[in-house]
Amino acid sequence: MITGQKNCRGPVSRRGFLQVGALASSALGFSDFLRLQSLAKEAGKKTPDTSVIFVWLPGGAPHMETYDMKPDAPAEYRGIFQPIRTNVPELQVCELLPLHAKCADRYTIIRSISHNFADHGGGHKRFLTGYDPKEPAGFVVDNPMCGSVVAKHREHIKIGLPNYVSIVDAGRQGLDTFSFGTAYLDKGTAPFFVVGNPAQPGFKVENIGLAPEMANRLEDRATLLGGMDRLRRDVDRSGLMDSMDKFSQQALDILTSPRAAEAFDLTRESDRTRDRYGRHAFGQRALMARRLVEAGSSFVTVVMENPGGPMPTYGTYNWDSHAVNCHIFDDARWRFPFYDQAVTALVEDLYARGLDKKVLLVVTGEFGRTPRLSVQTGTQTKVAQPGRDHWPQAMSMLVAGGGMRTGQIVGATDKRGERPAERPLSPNDLWATVYRHLGIDWTESLLDHTGRPMPILPHGEPIAELLPTA
C-alpha cells in the first residue's frame, strides 16, 4: 500500500536503473543516488534554444474537410467541398483554406497518425501523454501531459517568463478540461494559463506586472502577497495549493518581471501584424504564442475552440462536428476562415522573423472524424443536417518550423480516408519528434508517486521524413 507521495526529482535514464544493485552495500540511499545522478547529467547538458507552439483543436478537426480530402470517394464519404492546389504540386487542401495554399512549401501535412481511443477524454489522454489511459473516458491523466514533461526538464530556466503557457477561453483553464494535468510530476510543471479572448478591447493577462503603487514596495512582503490574492484564488480552485511554495516563487518571478509584461502585451505589435493574424481569438492567441516563444518560453499551447463573436445556430463551440451539434459544412464555412488566417499567419511569421529553426509548430486535435457522413436532427437548428462522429483511426495534422523538412505529405490513408494505408504512425512518433527538437531524451524515465521509473514515452521514434538532412 502506498503510504506517502514522493515528488519526482527529475529525469533518470533507463540505464541508470541497472546500476541500482551496486548501491546495496553503499551508505548512499537510492533516492540520493538518483538525485545526484540527475544533477550530474543536467550539469553536463546544454539546453538548446528551441521551443514549441502547440495548437490544440479540441473536439477533433475533420480530416476529410481539411488536409485529406477524398474527391473520388462515394458521396456519403467525400462531402461537398473540393480540394485546391497549393504551391506544392502534390499537396492539396480544402477550398476553404486558400491561405494554406499559398504557403504549403513551409509546412508538412501528416495524414497517417492514429490511435484507438474514440472518447474525447480517452483521446485527449492518449494523444497528450503518449500513454494508453487506464480509463477510456474522463480527462484526468495517469501520466503527465507532454507540456509538463517539457516544463520539468526546463525548470532550471528562470528568465522571468513562464516556460509553459496555455492560452484558453474563459472557463476552460482547468488542468482537467483538456487533460493538461501533471499526474505524478509536481504541480509546478502545470501551465501558466492566459484566459480569455486577446482580441477583445481591454483584454489583460492577469497576474503579470506590478501595479504602480507596488513598484517601490518590493521589500514589503505583505503588500506583494496582497497583490497575488487573485492568483492564489485561481490556484486554489485549480487544486494546486499542495505545491504553493514552488508555485508562489514562480508566480513571484512572473509578477515582478518586465520581460513577462512585455511578452504578453499585444499592443506592441503593429496594426498590420495584428490584422494579418486576424482580430479574433484564434489570430490573437497565435500572435501571443509567437511573442512568448520569441521572448524565451519553451512550450506554448494555443487552444482554438470558438474563434470569438456570436456563434451561428448551425455551428458548434469547438471542432466536435456531430450532426446533432452542427451542420458540418455550414460550420466549416464559418470556422475555417478564422483558422486559415491564424495558422498561416503564424507559419509565415515564424519564417519572416527567422524563428523557423528555433520554433516547432504542431497543429492537431485528439482525433479525426468519421469518413462516412451521418445525418441527424440538430439540437439548435431542429432540422436534419450532416455531421461526422469521432474517428481516432485516421487524422491529419500540420507541422512547420523546427528546422524540419517542409513542403511534403507524410503518410496516406486509404481511398475512403478510414485508416492509414502508408507509413502508419502514432502520437508517440510525433512527440518523439517534438522532444528531439527540444533536446529531451524521450527514453529517459521519471519517477511516479511510488518511486517507480516511468519512461517519458513507452515507445515512439522521431518521424524521419521531418528531420533535417544536415
The rounded distance between the terminal residues' Cα atoms is: 51 Å
Overall pLDDT metric: 87
**What structural class do you assign from the helix and strand content?**
alpha/beta
Radius of gyration: 23 Å
In words, what does this structure look like?
- The protein is an alpha/beta fold.
- It has a domain at 159-176 and 190-304.
- It contains 14 helices and 18 strands.
- The chain has helices at residues 14-17, 30-43, 75-78, 98-102, 120-129, 146-153, 221-226, 229-237, 244-255, 258-263, 271-277, 281-295, 328-352, 427-438, and strands at residues 51-56, 83-85, 92-94, 107-113, 164-168, 192-195, 299-303, 359-364, 368-369, 374-377, 384-387, 390-391, 395-401, 408-410, 412-413, 420-422, 445-447, 453-455.
- Strands 6-5-7-1-8-13-4-14 form an 8-stranded mixed beta sheet, sandwiched between helices. A two-stranded antiparallel ribbon has the order 2-3. Strands 9-12 form a two-stranded antiparallel ribbon.
- α12 runs parallel beside α13 (328-352).
- The longest helix is centred in the last third of the chain and has 25 residues, at 328-352.
- The model is unreliable at 1-40, 210-225 and 240-244 (pLDDT under 50).
What's a concise summary of this model?
With 470 residues, this protein is of the alpha/beta class. The chain is built from 14 helices and 18 strands. The chain has a domain of 133 residues.
List the helices and strands and how they pair.
Elements: H1 14-17, H2 30-43, E1 51-56, H3 75-78, E2 83-85, E3 92-94, H4 98-102, E4 107-113, H5 120-129, H6 146-153, E5 164-168, E6 192-195, H7 221-226, H8 229-237, H9 244-255, H10 258-263, H11 271-277, H12 281-295, E7 299-303, H13 328-352, E8 359-364, E9 368-369, E10 374-377, E11 384-387, E12 390-391, E13 395-401, E14 408-410, E15 412-413, E16 420-422, H14 427-438, E17 445-447, E18 453-455
Parallel strand pairs: 1-7, 1-8, 4-14, 5-6, 5-7
Antiparallel strand pairs: 2-3, 4-13, 8-13, 9-12, 10-11, 15-16, 17-18
